[in-house]
Write a structure and sequence with these properties.
Number of strands: 8
Number of helices: 0
Structural class: mainly beta
Low-confidence stretches: 1-13
Strand content: 35-45%
Oligomer: single chain
Number of domains: 1
Largest sheet: 8 strands, antiparallel
Mean pLDDT: 85
Radius of gyration: 17 Å
Amino acid sequence: MKLAFFTVLIGAATAICPGFNFGIADTHGGPPGSWRVYDDSCNSILTVFADNPCIAGAFGCSPAPIKFNALHLNGLDYACRPDPNSGTCEGNGIQVCCRNDGN
């Protein structure tokens, strides 16, 4: 009779925005300010340096109080909103999570 033993290692990595494609964080750089877009595995996808990120082209913003409500990346539009399950990347707290809802 042969016995086989298998060990499965499960990583402790967690998604920064479960159910979303990207997260946006204020990196607290500046001036000008800087904001970073991360994929759900904390890979840096885009960094925006601007005095006003709402007119830089990558983000859509709400009226005051200003929050990012859209991400425009690689010809696609992503809807963004705060999520209580968001995490951090490189020590930066994720402000909003973004996903493409087919647009």
